[in-house]
Amino acid sequence: MNINIYPMTQQDFNTISPILSAEFDDFWTISALKSELGNPNSSYIVAKLNSEIVGFAGIWKAVDEVHIMDIVVKKNYRHQGIGKILLEELLRLTKELGFHVITLEVNAQNTIAQKLYLHYNFKEVRISKKLLWYWARCLNLYFTCIDKI
Asked: Measuring CA to CA, how many Å separate 60 from each of 1, 41, 51?
């Protein structure tokens, strides 16, 4: 499978918008994703197989760290290594931007994603007690050593 990674464009957003909840996941709203794309502190990428968008991911740059906002793979392309490719690109981008700390939150029930993050040396910090509109709770994993990747 030949996956290519590109910065997300407005055209990519327009392609994803009508199929976001049906073919990707329902925890991202169109308005939330559009807001992130317009945020100068955010960077989003897409994974394409030929010309089809099969995944996307994004980071938010804070003062001294990067937060992974999401890694999303199209439902019928999951379990094929695309999430790994997207994560590796986010880690490369984080390092390129000069950051050394990266954080993320992951659904406590998403054990597949947790295994991926732990494989890349993310460390579990805590289980958040906050309730989010899309998850009952989320597991906060924290990674501090980008230079060892």
From this structure: 29, 6, 26
* Side chain identity, residue 124: E
Give the CATH number of the domain where residue 52 resides.
3.40.630.30
Residue 92's domain spans which residues? 3-148
Task: Domain count for the chain, please give it.
Answer: 1
Residues contacting residue 97 through CB under 8 Å, at least 6 positions apart: 61, 66
Q: Residues 84-92: what's their mean pLDDT?
A: 96
Q: What is the pLDDT of residues 109-142, one digit of tens each?
A: 788 988 999 899 888 776 665 555 454 555 565 5
* Rounded-to-integer distance, Cα 52 and Cα 72, Å: 14
Q: How far is the C-alpha of 25 from the C-alpha of 72, rounded, in Å?
A: 7
64: exposed, middle or buried (Cβ count in 10 Å: 0-12, 13-18, 19+): exposed
Degrees, nearest 5: CA angle 48-51-52: 60
Mean pLDDT value across residues 79-95: 95
Tell me the residue ranges of DSSP E strands in the chain: 3-7, 42-49, 52-61, 66-73, 102-107, 123-127, 138-143
Give the dihedral sign, CA 34/40/42/45: positive
